[in-house]
Write a sequence for this structure.
């Protein structure tokens, strides 16, 4: 009996962790023809790369740190925690070598801004993707 309870608990925990991780879509304006790999996306969001491969300016948009998409993006794409990113940007701002990306409230705001500006790049929950943006990567 104890074995069955343990097996049931392990199964439930396993399913919960699968559902807790959302798929993140990195999105750009539909007219953007750039093809970016995860390294290039990371470099854009860390301020190390300033343009798309086609030559256009690349301006990243982050979501509020309280949003689930932000945690997923930070860990899956940037390989950093929220506190590591805060420290990273604090150093760059202090030395005058960088400015962190603009922060918006949610997926809808990211979509709204990107659909109006071909220079922007952002991330949203993959389930929130609309025809107003183009997905260039999923994580």
């Amino acid at each position: 009996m104890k074995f069955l309870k343990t097996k049931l608990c392990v199964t439930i925990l396993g399913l919960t962790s699968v559902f807790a991780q959302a798929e993140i879509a990195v999105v750009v304006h539909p007219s953007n023809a750039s093809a970016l790999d995860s390294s290039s996306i990371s470099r854009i969001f860390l301020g190390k790369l300033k343009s798309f491969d086609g030559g256009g300016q690349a301006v990243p948009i982050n979501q509020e740190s309280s949003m689930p998409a932000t945690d997923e993006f930070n860990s899956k794409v940037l390989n950093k925690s929220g506190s590591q990113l805060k420290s990273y940007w604090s150093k760059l701002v202090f030395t005058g070598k960088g400015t962190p990306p603009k922060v918006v409230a949610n997926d809808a705001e990211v979509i709204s801004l990107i659909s109006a500006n071909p220079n922007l790049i952002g991330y949203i929950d993959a389930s929130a993707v609309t025809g107003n943006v183009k997905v260039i990567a999923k994580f």
Summary: The chain has five helices and five strands. The chain has one domain: 22-138. The domain at 22-138 is CATH 3.40.190.10 (D-Maltodextrin-Binding Protein; domain 2).
